[in-house]
Amino acid sequence: MKVCMIGGTGLLGSEGARELIARGHQVKAIALPPLPQGAVLPPEMEITYGNYLEMTDDEVRAMFAGCEGFVFAAGVDERVEGPAPIYDLFKKYNIDSLNRLLRIARECGVKHTVVLGSYFSYFAKEWPQMRLTEYHPYIRSRIDQEKMALNYAGPDFDVAILELPYIFGTQPGRKPVWIFLVENIRSMKGVTMWPKGGSTMVTVKQVGQAIAGALERNHGGNCYPIGWYNLTWKEMLRICHKYLGCPEKKIVTIPNWMYAIGGRKLKKEQQQKGIEGGLDMVKFTDLQCSNQFIDNSLGCVPLGVKEDDIDAAIGDSIRLCVDILDGKAKNIVAMKGE
């Protein structure tokens, strides 16, 4: 299968491309420069540097020419802040742009599509009592993205949404999203204070397998909740502490109201700047302090994802964060959404 990928040089896109090529597929990628210094991309991948948002419809058609598969590994995530209503920004980058691409892809004869989404969508559907789409513009946008994309699914056009969770692993030269985590742990002397709850997690290698598996195995329109390792925050932090060189550091579980105080402070700062975040960090308390766990039978197993070493993947992420914060890693490219 020849596959067109938007975002093929990023952490997730490049791992998906590597897995697809290893399975005998061809991959052509459209990506924004610059390429992270030291990043190792599959030499067989055909890369065109440019902004797909600025392409004409004819240029997009040329991009899809001869392709049977399409992977959307672009868009923006919940870390983005901007003028209210921030939903408009998410709509532009995560919904409207994808809507155009899917329309043209189907016209061009593409048969299989994979969209990289968020596991917040899964919990918005599983836990309606939390009213996540009402309180959080980013989560609302992800649900709306799913609905839009699945409307394209039919007998000759398969659409798979990967609802992705916490992902660990690195790409040389690219800033991990976990910088904030390392900064927070380091800032707390003596003990690490964290809320209750936990999250499902996967390695970047497992995401690559999920991308390839979805292109090969999905039929029709389906959402796949992706999760393999269900760890409490304490379990995750113990691994982080190990790689930060403080394995004996105590972890203290704080009450929900204390976590919400930080959310109120952030929200006040955003209001003073005249901006809005993708998540209402006060309302987010209930989700953050829950066990956001996903059974691997729901998505990973059907797509052929295999077990990996989450401890080592967390370690790789933590070590790169430390090198960046300590000035040992230079010329670092920011992750998508920053």
Fold and architecture overview:
- The protein is an alpha/beta fold and 338 residues long.
- It is 41% helix and 20% strand.
- Helix 3 runs parallel beside helix 6.
- The longest helix has 21 residues, at 87-107.
Summarize the structure.
The protein is an alpha/beta fold and 338 residues long. It is built from twelve helices and 15 strands. A seven-stranded parallel sheet has the order 3-2-1-4-6-7-11, with helices on both faces. Strands 8, 10, 12 and 15 form a four-stranded mixed sheet that branches. Strands 5-14 form a two-stranded antiparallel sheet.
Q: What fraction strand?
A: 15-25%
How much helical structure, as a percent, in the residues? 40-55%
Distance between the termini: 33 Å
Shape: globular
> Rounded to an integer, what's the Rg over CA atoms?
20 Å
Order of helices and strands: EHEEHEEHEHHHEEHEEHEEHEHEHEH
Beta strands, count: 15
Query: What spatial order of strands do you see in the largest sheet?
Result: 3-2-1-4-6-7-11
- Main sheet characteristics: 7 strands, parallel
The helix/strand class is: alpha/beta
